[in-house]
Amino acid sequence: MAMPRTLFDKIWDRHVVAVAEGGETLLYVDRCLIHEGSRHAFTMIEEEGRNVRRPAQVLAVADHYVPTRNRAAGLPGIGDERIRGMIELLEANTRRHGVTLFGLDDDRQGILHVVGPEQGITQPGMVITGADSHTSTHGALGCLAFGIGQSEAAHVLATQTIWQRKPKTMRVSAGGRLGAGVTAKDVILAVIARIGSGGAAGHVIEYAGPAIRAMSMEQRLTVCNMSIEAGARAGMVAPDDTTFAYLAERRCAPKGPDWDRALAFWRALPGDSEASFDVDVDIDAAALAPMVTWGTNPEHALPVTGRVPDPEAPENASRRADLRAALDYMGLAPGMKLTDIAIDRVFIGSCTNGRLDDLRSAAVIARHGRAKIPVMVVPGSARVKQLAEAEGLDRVFHDAGFEWLDAGCSMCTALNGDQLRPRERCASTSNRNFRGRQGPEGRTHLMSPAMAAAAALAGHIADVRTLG
Amino acid sequence: MERFVTLTAIAAPLAEPNVDTNQLCPTRFNKVAREAPDYQRILFHDRRFDADGKERPEFLLNRPPWREAKIIVADRNFGCGSSRESAVYALMAFGIRAVIASSFGDIFRSNSLKNGLLPVQLPDDAVTALRDAVTASQGGAVAIDLPAQTVTGPDGTAYRFDIHPLRKRCLVEGLDDFALTDRYADEFAAFEARYRAETPWLFGER
């Protein structure tokens, strides 16, 4: 009898082109995703005298540097010439190499990791590499998707393959049912807090269990998105009827007889029931509370009911130093209640939480009052924006005093000019609370869209469950 | 790619876990071309320099002898975070050729290996002992021998490290992945023909 295989094993095995010394494997890549930051990759292949081998299997999106305001003015409307230059460079590189670009004015434009699934470009069973660490997002559809650097991106562009060592596997099983006000974002923050920001290094995580099965595709995308924040190479969820229903009729999804063939193939992808993982982690979804980060790394996350930790408590000296430095940077005192932390600004958006489900959950809270502080709501794509407006979410946000903007990475990466001022404190639905991530000396507290909206109404971190 | 064979150099003891890529290269510097003069200033920019661009004298890499370091002895999970290769470019521009830690961000590790920056992974206690020895010696040299897969601290203690054989050969020979992959042209052609036939819907029009 054949060895039982996981979902990951099945996808990996199918993409092996060759195996070299020590087991290093040349993997075939179905789709390569790039953005404005991929400039060096083009330079490298041109210096090598190579071309993009399979341009039809590469997708470029302008997302990191695009403005969220004054979009009607197009490229000339971008005042900072270095920011404009990054978008122009992507346009020139993709044109020269025949790569599809969803550029600034395209109605398919948005954040790479929102656009791929939304357009049906991301499909079960694929190997997807992306020139961005949050490429792990796409694994929610049952594919193997991971972030790569510029050298590797250059190699993928030129060869449609990548050299990889086979990673280990980790299964994160979420049992039980999420309580009211607790979301996919809280699940993944709780996982990262549990295993640490390097806890899944060298592993691919498969998320399983009833709480994951019960999630919509958009919620699963949120979970897989932050796999990299636990150090994982990738995150994935076995494809099921939720996946297939999500994909059906999407623009780039297979159609007609192709759909039937694809569906039969996809249904055979989930791992064999006897397949084992190198590491198993179990969490009780029913016991989770809304999570917030207090420090400078996503592993610095606690239930909103908690208090800022005492940096002198850990036995390990490096852990103590880490907590001290984090508290110092964040300007927080040990022991204070998380709900006593005053917030200056709110950011709702990003590849983690910029989808329609996310905006709906923020809007539910926004209906309860008016923002006490500035709030930016940045849809993850032009299409998300259009759908949100079709159901009136933009009006809900306007009425609550939230600013409704155009799609892009915006203040998650703080590259397009949207950024915090020094020491400004932000409730953010993004994925990284690293020092300076949202602007030099900026202070980031990660949380779900509903929690961010609650912080906007309260002016401080608030437990969304108390708003009713 | 720059070759890496042996290196004996000053090692800076950076006793912090989770040194993320945003610290190594703050995001706003991603748009700086790698060829730009002063690229080395990007490394740890917001911790090395104040708002006026003056060095913060207290930061490790601004202090002698560490400002001459070519090796960093870190802690766990060095290089976590984004896929930006500029984190590696910045380290190399400063002169760093090896980082020793108990674990690395996976993408950072790959990026390092593709650029001739050696990530040396040692157990937690070995990293701590080596870092303590480096701190105590105030600039004593650390010696790395990649072919022998050893690191020797200033106190003479030697540690053996693991590295994937193919990656070791690429580093020692200065071989990049393009040259390697070209050898598998026949395998690629055979693979792709079969693959396209099995899953034709992946190759339709967009």
Distance between the termini of chain B: 36 Å
- Helical residues, percent of chain A: 25-40%
Largest sheet of chain A: 5 strands, parallel
Structural class of chain B: alpha/beta
Number of domains of chain A: 2
CATH class of the largest domain in chain A: Alpha Beta
Top-tier CATH class of the largest domain in chain B: Alpha Beta
Number of strands of chain B: 7
Q: Order of strands in the sheet with the most strands of chain A? A: 5-4-3-6-7
Descriptive overview:
The complex is a heterodimer of chains A (468) and B (206). With 468 residues, chain A is α/β, with parallel strands linked by helices. Chain A has 16 helices and 19 strands. Chain A has 2 domains: 1-289, Aconitase, domain 3 (2-Layer Sandwich), CATH 3.30.499.10; 292-467, Aconitase, domain 3 (2-Layer Sandwich). In chain A, strands 5-4-3-6-7 form a 5-stranded parallel β-sheet. The longest helix of chain A has 17 residues, at 81-97. Chain A is globular and about 55 Å long. In chain A, 61% of the residues are buried. Chain B has 206 residues and is α/β, with parallel strands linked by helices. Chain B folds into 2 domains: 6-175, Aconitase, domain 4, CATH 3.20.19; 176-206. Chain B has 8 helices and 7 strands; from the N terminus they run βααβαβαβαβββααα. Chain B has a 7-stranded mixed β-sheet. In chain B, β3, α4 (106-113) and β4 form a beta-alpha-beta unit. The two termini of chain B are 36 Å apart. At the A-B interface, α3, α5, α10 and α11 of A face α4, α6, α7 and α8 of B.
